[in-house]
């Protein structure tokens, strides 16, 4: 972990139990900070908090307050996002190849019992690809609504560009992951792996990888994601891997 981010992580470790109290089961870091690739003033703090029960609206409000407090106090980070999930859901059969895989393979334990001990060994196969990112068709309408509701201010559009760029690059990578036969968390490496199999879309993914790390507040980029790249990925993903098993919240 880069030395500059150690005070941020120490503060998160101290404040998470105070924030969630007895509701807390465990907490994890993920993203560029535990990978050692975070850049001061540009990288965000990614936390996963596992609660003993499904998170409530009050829990989510507490998570947003934690993110704001850390972002305001530490100039090293550019925003943050605390994901909240219930303990039983992580270990459920339905989430074994989505949340379970995420915890076991992409998260670094920060507090509490490491749930990876209760999860299987994973392979970069089509089942994993389908269950991690085979739901883009459900996400695109929500993305369009978020874009429409956002103002043209740079600080409103930049987080959307960063989030959607990262999601699309990761989806594009998992599309080819079984053929590439491995995993990486680096967006640039993901884009290059994808481009080897889909050269006609390679430059588009390289650009998205750059924006995933250094976003701009460009509404045209967001429009291209929901009108072109996203719909294409949805069709190709369904053709190659199928569609992710529905979740109750998909309703």
Using only CA atoms, what is the Rg?
18 Å
Instruction: Give the strand tally.
Output: 4
Q: Mean pLDDT, as a whole number?
A: 93
Question: What structural class results from the helix and strand content?
Answer: alpha+beta
Largest sheet: 4 strands, mixed
Instruction: Give the helix tally.
Output: 11
Coarse morphology? globular
Instruction: Please mark out the parts with pLDDT under 50 across 5 or more consecutive residues, or reply none.
Output: none
Portion in strands? 5-15%
As a percent range, the share of helical residues equals 55-70%
What's the end-to-end separation, in Å?
40 Å
What strand line-up does the widest sheet have?
A: 3-2-1-4
SSE string: HEHEHEHHEHHHHHH
Describe this structure in words.
57% of the residues lie in helices and 10% in strands. It is built from 11 helices and 4 strands. Strands 3-2-1-4 form a 4-stranded mixed beta sheet, with helices on both faces. β2 (45-51), α3 and β3 form a beta-alpha-beta unit. The relative contact order is 0.11. The model has no long low-confidence stretch (mean pLDDT 93).
Question: How would you summarize the topology of this molecule?
Answer:
Elements: H1 6-20, E1 24-30, H2 32-35, E2 45-51, H3 57-73, E3 80-86, H4 87-90, H5 99-106, E4 108-112, H6 126-133, H7 136-149, H8 154-180, H9 187-197, H10 202-213, H11 219-241
Parallel strand pairs: 2-3
Antiparallel strand pairs: 1-2, 1-4
Helix pairs in contact: 1-3, 6-8, 6-11, 7-8, 7-11, 8-9, 8-10, 8-11, 9-10
